[in-house]
Give the backbone structure.
Amino acid sequence: MIPARGRSGAAAETGDVSFAVIGLGYWGPNLVRVLHELAGAEVTAVFDVRQDSCSDIVNRYPSVRAARSYAELLEDDAIDAVAIATPVSTHYKLAAAALRAGKHVFVEKPLAGSTEQAVGLIELARTADRTLMPGHTFLYSPPVNLSRDLIRDGELGEIFFISTSRVNLGLHQSDVSVVWDLGPHDFSILRYWLGEMPTRVSAWSRGCIVDSVPDVAFVNLEFPSGTIAHVELSWLAPSKLRRTAIVGSRKMVVYDDTSVEPIRIFDSGADVPDPETFGEFRMTYRAGDIISPRVDVTEPLQLELADFCRAIAHDVQPKSSAELGLDVIRIAEGVDASLACGGAPVVLTPDSSPAVA
Amino acid sequence: MIPARGRSGAAAETGDVSFAVIGLGYWGPNLVRVLHELAGAEVTAVFDVRQDSCSDIVNRYPSVRAARSYAELLEDDAIDAVAIATPVSTHYKLAAAALRAGKHVFVEKPLAGSTEQAVGLIELARTADRTLMPGHTFLYSPPVNLSRDLIRDGELGEIFFISTSRVNLGLHQSDVSVVWDLGPHDFSILRYWLGEMPTRVSAWSRGCIVDSVPDVAFVNLEFPSGTIAHVELSWLAPSKLRRTAIVGSRKMVVYDDTSVEPIRIFDSGADVPDPETFGEFRMTYRAGDIISPRVDVTEPLQLELADFCRAIAHDVQPKSSAELGLDVIRIAEGVDASLACGGAPVVLTPDSSPAVA
Amino acid sequence: MIPARGRSGAAAETGDVSFAVIGLGYWGPNLVRVLHELAGAEVTAVFDVRQDSCSDIVNRYPSVRAARSYAELLEDDAIDAVAIATPVSTHYKLAAAALRAGKHVFVEKPLAGSTEQAVGLIELARTADRTLMPGHTFLYSPPVNLSRDLIRDGELGEIFFISTSRVNLGLHQSDVSVVWDLGPHDFSILRYWLGEMPTRVSAWSRGCIVDSVPDVAFVNLEFPSGTIAHVELSWLAPSKLRRTAIVGSRKMVVYDDTSVEPIRIFDSGADVPDPETFGEFRMTYRAGDIISPRVDVTEPLQLELADFCRAIAHDVQPKSSAELGLDVIRIAEGVDASLACGGAPVVLTPDSSPAVA
Amino acid sequence: MIPARGRSGAAAETGDVSFAVIGLGYWGPNLVRVLHELAGAEVTAVFDVRQDSCSDIVNRYPSVRAARSYAELLEDDAIDAVAIATPVSTHYKLAAAALRAGKHVFVEKPLAGSTEQAVGLIELARTADRTLMPGHTFLYSPPVNLSRDLIRDGELGEIFFISTSRVNLGLHQSDVSVVWDLGPHDFSILRYWLGEMPTRVSAWSRGCIVDSVPDVAFVNLEFPSGTIAHVELSWLAPSKLRRTAIVGSRKMVVYDDTSVEPIRIFDSGADVPDPETFGEFRMTYRAGDIISPRVDVTEPLQLELADFCRAIAHDVQPKSSAELGLDVIRIAEGVDASLACGGAPVVLTPDSSPAVA
């Protein structure tokens, strides 16, 4: 049973959260499908400027209504929450309007197009006492969480570095660069795994197809703990890669989202020589067993939307919090700042814009 | 039949180049093995400060003599050429002495420890009219040459970018960083493939085991033609990777030195939209056939040493020329300069030291 | 527009084939999903003895009605065709009743539990002038059809042999052995590719979990053309394999249904020695390029059900014909006959039961 | 120090076993190389009917003498043992002569061309009190031995079945079929792992290139314990496979000799239902962690020849005993007997020829 939080929608009776889904392009229909089947949620209405996208959904889910305008949805008291899957440039305007109308808001990543917008949305959500959540789906991925546990429990030792490739052939969004399209996945995962924000960022990129839009980027990050990370992002690649190597002082992990064995733990490393005999040292390398643990196969999107409903019901922070979403944007802005000055490293400070070092 | 070039060694009679191999650590015994079996070459003597390394070789090849000192070898008129496989810090001194003694010199990569030293050796070789060649073995690798042909013949179109990973668990040399140990392989390949020197370089690294010695590095390069390249280097990695993706405007190639199919050609790419309708464009991506051409399996080291003998005999430049070796060192120094200033991009100018941009 | 063929269902007006889907276990819901989205078809009703399976479907597809009995469905003139996805032991009874009621019948593979039953169904369909089609989905798989083209067009030369493994961990059906569960996939593919029936069959198997139910089997087939085939089937396997090697005199193909490159063509083979010099011969082997052609990714089930609708509309044989379905059963019975006599080869004659050789 | 056993050769003094290697085709030079470097062994002489094969060896190993005839070697008292790597058809004659001349004998697999010949050689060795050993190298392979330990220690539970593929493009020996060329590897491994002889054998094959010489064969074996095994052998295959799946009631193993992870242990299986509720049962399948244990990389041939020297010195049975070699031949003869009668199963009885069941 969902506590009140001043709810007026249909969910007030059934206990279900009543959703409107906005944006029915590539990702929106997945939101509809998962919400439709999720206990505790129901899809009441959809809206997209392209009317035939709406018709497709209504044909498949006759209980869902196609709204004529976004405003109409926001005025509908039977709707508790909106799930926004539109181009990034519209996130702020749509989310702000929904929060002002008293709706809970789920926005596809990235939360907004700038730090300023994200801070504005967080402020609005606080004022309205509504839940605001960006869709960083990977935080709900079982292999990502298994890796997080290994890192947090010290199983891997000190995290020396993390190197990740997220490349394939094909553009998902047309209004942003590869840094804002694919980057948020890795930035959110790194932020989640390490529990800290990078303090320095640099990047190298090229707009191969359209000069002004980077479609390949190599991003470097440095964290306060000493960990460094490297993120390769590309829309132009011979084959799909989703490979992350986590190199720790005790063990190493390869996380590959395309594999039937998404996590492999390598009991390998360098045995550090005794500092006393440092001058004479000769490293020894150890290569041991490799373990592919059984990983649960639940769909992350389902866990994510369930977390959103739980956050609404119990007035708690979801794992993919708006604050984490803000941090992701700050990293992406750091990358852009570095690119703007030819790849120079940029310092990220907690409360201001990125500054060239 | 080898022309004279003032030769006084045994080869003067048999036509074979008589070699002394210096340094019998990890790589030197391979030089001995290949030279021993190479038509046109013979191994006359070996030298290493560790006497048991010499004994091992002499036991296996009774026709080879163990010298008591390097000086003794240089005084021996029966020796035409020295092949040096010692730590990098000794390359200059050993190679310079050999050139001054009138020997042809083959030095394992990198040619020397600095631009200054490399320029010095090139000068000495010119004065002494002797062949000086660094051992950039990959220039003789059949898949590297097949890739070069595809690039040069325009088969791949414009080269947008090249991304390469060369990582595994284990240190090969103890007196240099991973940038100078593994980097020269990729720097020489890129220089060879693209036929141009990078004009800007940046890098990010960490000394995970020993603070002052980078054992992981992420290197970015920008070339005059617009091509960018990324090189990941590490002695700490869960598994061996030798993977290079070449992304061109027409086709893409994956070169993987650990695979039984070392070259795979992807007939894939993005179809560039008409600039007229630019505002409206929607990229189309094309994924076509993939071809793994049959690749010759000759050992590169054998082709390399044969090229050295040919260069001596005919007084011509080997493919792995000293000038290319100098370029490789200039890139490595650019990387070090970037690392020294925290990852800032560095401009490489043809005739001077790297400068922070 | 669908020609009449004495149709009385809803489709008579809309031109769509109106379906009832029977059996909503593992596979049935896929039939509902695909038929629901297929132009030219509509799902009118479903039936399963487990009432909650029906409810699940009706909740998801509110336009679909749950019938109270199979008999009720058969009496409903608005239904043109039934699609049967029940256990094999029920196929005959359900299909026969539907044909007698004037419905077109699609039955999941195998068509029936015995040659006798399959012949009976074919006879009934002929009498009733209705379309009867077994669901040999792989005949609609793009890589299977690409392989068929390569074989038929002589690209591979003479087909020496075909070796296939279809193994994984897990039981799909509880009333039959692995031979009748997984075997029909391969038997139908081989029958389709080679265009001929095997004349001899032998098999080796074990019931590892339940003595009387083979869960692993090794099947050998010999065809009139000289081609031999081997089929490995298992419900107990460390990892999923779906690998078929087709070895021809000119080229070879590997078809792997689990790979992103499902078809790989190897320009490899043995060069046959001149018969004149036969006594002295020394074979030469040729290993050439490997090509992974781009393969269409259409869902086979969709193509299959569209073919069924087309067969109904135009009164033609579908690719997966009842006759081919009968041949598959004859092979499976041959395998059982061989197993029953300890693995002895069994001769398959066109018009009679398998006989021990 | 090697005990006497009536030794008269050079080894009497140095304690080393003095070898003559006979047959310098594909494999013989490997025997020379390994024996040359093996402590406790030395290569004194070589012989091959092709004189240039001898010259090649002598050039590489100047301490080795090329004999003019086999007889000359047998008369040489300085030679303790002969290692025979000639075509199978010559094994018996060469080995018998050597045993009669008082030499210890190492013969490449298979030990001889027939059961009768193998029994004859064993008899001769017993009479002469000399060590006779067939070269079943895989019994010394670290991953094979790790698998053996897992089987023997009950880690895998009851061994349900073993399925193995040993295929590639290319013929190694010209005087035998693929059954006698590749088969002995698998037959020896199965005999070693299971510690029992199969009691029934059947096979299916084709001579694709030369009618009378099977170049592809599918072999089935049944063991007294209930384990069944399947062996796929081929000289015609699109790519090299060396894959063995061992399916036990508790765990499963994949042994792949071409992989950097040659052994993978799968904690997977079927949970057997309670016999009480048998009629109602529904199997549950369990897929758990996968472990790739670190496997030693010592060259098996080195361990094998060291075992031969140890067997000579201490007058003990080597792991690859002549009796095991005889069993391997009995299996191969069983396969031939099955092939001769069209694939009918054949019963192997301990002391007689194979009989059609």
User: Anything to note?
Assistant: Chain B has a mean pLDDT of 91. The CA atoms of residues 2 and 313 of chain B lie 5 Å apart. The two ends of chain B are 52 Å apart (CA to CA). Chain B touches chain D through five residues (CB under 8 Å).
